[in-house]
Amino acid sequence: MKNQHSLSTLAVHAGEERRGKFAPVATPIVQSSTFVFPSSREVQRFSEGKSKAFMYTRYGNPTLQAAEVKMAALEGGEAALVAASGMAAISTAVLSFVHSGDEIISSRNIYGGTFHLFSHVLPDFNIRTNFFSGDELDSVERLVTPRSRLLYIETPANPVMQIIDLRRAAHVARRHRMLLMVDSTFATPILERPLELGADVVMHSVTKYLGGHSDIIGGVLVGNKKVIGKIREMMKRLGGIMDPAAAFLLLRGLKTLPVRVERQCDSAMKIARWMEKHPRFSKVHYPGLKSSPYHALAKKQMHGRFGGMIAADLRGGRPAAMRFADRLRIIQNAASLGGVESLISLPVLTSHWGFSPEQLRSVGITEGTVRLSIGLEDARDLIEDIEQAAG
Ligand SMILES: *Cc1c(COP(=O)(O)O)cnc(C)c1O
Fold first, then answer.
1. Backbone angles phi, psi at 205, to 5 degrees
2. What are the start-end ranges of the E strands in 51-178?
3. Of 117, 185, 204, which is best to mutate to test ligand 1, by the most ligand atoms within 8 angstroms of its C-beta?
4. How buried is 191 (Cβ within 10 angstroms: 0-12 exposed, 13-18 middle, 19+ buried)?
5. 188 partner at 20 to 30 Å CA-CA among 30, 50, 75, 373?
């Protein structure tokens, strides 16, 4: 499969082996921990790095490899590596780049688990992280020291769908000889391909859009052969590999990724526009709206669509937001995002639990903020659901 094909074609065909005695059209689950070698000579060739055979699933497995080839094709990277979760992907990648005494520079609005890793776990290993506001990329320059190794960003990012300029971030990283790692979970390769804009590693929680059906936990990293090869060595040591059954569901989910994301974005656009006019919502955060401070950048950087995630502030604070969430009938109250079913979550009860009103203000949200992940239900049905719950 040539990587010049369009994303929809790559999503269906890239990575699928379809060879051997039965040539199944869907790559099967190779549910085996270990693999048989025809001779000791072949084992020796494997250990010399001269063989493409599989030895042991923690080192590699045909179903995982198929998912990796498909992901590399979709992101326009040379290589990919799947992991047991988004957090396994992030921690394994970060630990292969930074060592005791090194520093990370990270945007502040990042996934809670990543923030915890950077601010509570890594300091115990003498790895410090300095945070900057994603709206002020220039401030990175002031945080750079001779020990800065990694620039880490997430775009679009919770809770207000903040967009960070990838080209500029890549420029800053290159100037200071840092690697640029991008959590592109909210964007998917359909809306944004950070490697083409200069990133070194792209990470996704495949738990979200890439799996797309709320039935697996997983992560993936994409980059050039050298970078992914280095992370793969660390993955062998740390062991956070994806299970072959999850890789099968990931492959299955990826085949419909382009159509799912297009529909989710189109519905989110309609719903965000409708919500913006509704008096119960004092603010709607969606990069597709002209009122969004990120609209111009999103138009430039994302591929003509703005994602399936919306945040909105309900008048009446936390009680109003809780009542709204409880009255919804189609949209389910659950954490996570990116699946076929629409979900709602309240940042003050989940990702931003325990934040003071002052801290909430500093990240741009209120006690009444709700976050919607738009699924594949009919957009009119979703609007009706929101209308009856907000009423
Ligand atoms: C969910 C999520 C993660 C963590 O992924 P897991 O699969 O839950 O480990 C990281 N980044 C973002 C943006 C996420 O939404």
1. -85, 110
2. 79-83, 103-107, 128-132, 148-154
3. 185
4. buried
5. 30
C-beta 185 within 6 A of ligand 1: yes
Name the token pair of 373: 């992940």
Question: Residue 375 — φ and ψ, nearest 5°?
Answer: -95, -150
Contact 295, 45 (CB under 8 A): no
**pLDDT confidence bin for 4, thresholds 50/70/90:** confident
In 3D space, the residue among 195, 281, 222 whose CA is nearest the CA of residue 231 turns out to be 222
| Complete edge-to-edge strand list for the sheet that includes strand 281-285 | 281-285, 309-314, 369-373, 343-345, 332-333
Cβ 263 vs Cβ 376: under 8 Å: yes
Using alpha carbons, list the distances in angstroms from residue 257 to 98, 129, 157, 190, 353.
33, 34, 20, 8, 32
Mean pLDDT on 148-154: 98
Element housing 387 (H / E)? helix 379-390
CA of 220 relative to ligand 1 center, distance in Å: 11
The pLDDT tens digits for 29-45 are: 999 999 999 999 999 99
pTM, two decimal places: 0.97
Distance CA 87, CA 111 (A): 10
Domains in the chain, start-ordered, CATH in brackets? 7-255 (3.40.640.10), 257-390 (3.90.1150.10)
The helix/strand/coil state of 316 is: coil
Token pair, residue 215, equals: 């039935």
